[in-house]
Amino acid sequence: MDTKKLQLYFFMALLIAVFLITLALFKPFIAPVALAFMTAIVVRPIDRWILAKTKGRRTLTATLTVLFVLIVILVPLSILIEQIAVESFNFYTAVRDRGLGDANLLVAYVIKPIQSIYPTWNPDIGGYVKSAADSLVNNFGRIFSSTASIALGLFIVLITLFYILRDGKRMKKTIMDISPLADTYDQQIIDKIERAVNSVVRGSLLTSLIKGILATLGFYVFGVEHALLWGMLTSVVSLLPGIGAGLTIIPAVLYLFLIDKLGAAIGLGIWGIIVVGLVDNILMPIVVGRGFTVHPLFVMLSVIGGIIFFGPIGLFLGPLVIALFSALIEIYKLIILDDQNKEVTSL
Asked: What string of H, E and C letters represents the secondary structure of the chain?
């Protein structure tokens, strides 16, 4: 056998073996590293603004940007998660002690008319609610029981984010040098991935979070119990195209109406239509702008699937995966179909 071929085969086998070992070593940190890359893309405008203020001092800029992420994003998010956990436990306790309470009126007025048409339809609403409450409490219990693991993951995210922000240009150049594609294609791939991540995180997830906050405020002002918990649920269902937030606000309006709080029901309905309902039209163009977008249905499915597959961190990793997939589809159209068109033209 040719010596050069033997050397090549040996090198490729060694490379694959070392790659698999490296992958096994880094497997526990894939989620924090991916989250750091996603965060770096989202906070890039802040990073560039700080870089201009620090007159190009890259290390100082990266440090200040990481502090911004820690103080402005992670600390409030941690407090919010803790409060949702407390609210979930209170909801669980209330359902366990007194059942559905006033919500039984909603069940009676909605289920009974349907049963008059379909007598065999008899959903166990109380059982579903209790099961959901049990699931919420158990999931939050698992999250807070692994404090050391969360702290390590957070540390890795922040450290990785720092080096991405500081050395991002060198990392990008290295990737483009290794890639067998032309540099123009590499740059287009990177640009499309950035736009996809921005579309998902700064677009769909951010607007859904704002909808949830506004809905929580409406629930609290107009007297809906466990406002924070229903606001969180509103954030999730807001990812669903079309009705979205209406899946929680409409039942809340009906609930207020059935317990003789007509003014509060009307007020919450107006709040939901005017304030919560217009977030997409006003905020989405501002935070995303024009260009590449990911359909909200895929974002919602990626959030649910991400949580099932990755656990709580899947709330962010699921949309990241769908963003990368969407970007690669665009690249496929750009490279493969473009080459096919060139072949047809040459014939």
From this structure: CCHHHHHHHHHHHHHHHHHHHHHHHHHHHHHHHHHHHHHHHHCHHHHHHHHHHCCCCHHHHHHHHHHHHHHHHHHHHHHHHHHHHHHHHHHHHHHHHHCCCCHHHHHHHHHHHHHHHCCCCCCCHHHHHHHHHHHHHHHHHHHHHCHHHHHHHHHHHHHHHHHHHHHHHHHHHHHHHHCCCCHHHHHHHHHHHHHHHHHHHHHHHHHHHHHHHHHHHHHHHCCCCCHHHHHHHHHHHCCCCCCCCHHHHHHHHHHHHHCCCHHHHHHHHHHHHHHHCCHHHHHHHHHCCCCCCCCHHHHHHHHHHHHHHHCCCHHHHHHHHHHHHHHHHHHHHHHHHHHHHHHHHHC
